[in-house]
Amino acid sequence: MNAGAEESTKSIRACITEAGLDTEIHTTKTLCNGRCEDAPVVIVMPDNIWYKKVTSEATNKLVEQHLCQGKIVEEHLLFDYATFKINQNE
Fold this sequence. Notes:
Elements: H1 5-18, E1 42-44, E2 49-51, H2 56-69, E3 77-80, E4 85-86
Helix pairs in contact: 1-2
């Protein structure tokens, strides 16, 4: 893992636990998703939402907004396969 992925993984897991969701949400670390330029990438399933550049600072927002409230975190959105929305803003 590179580009801060290890820190982001630890952070998102801590945020999930803090939110009391660790019995409902399972996390899996992967190797390459083919999106090095967008790393670290977080994929939320079954929503099929891909987030880019998810630093440890962004994980709390991702858990609070997406996992708890069901709202897409637009500033980190990479792909929304449900609506076929692709965020091309950098």
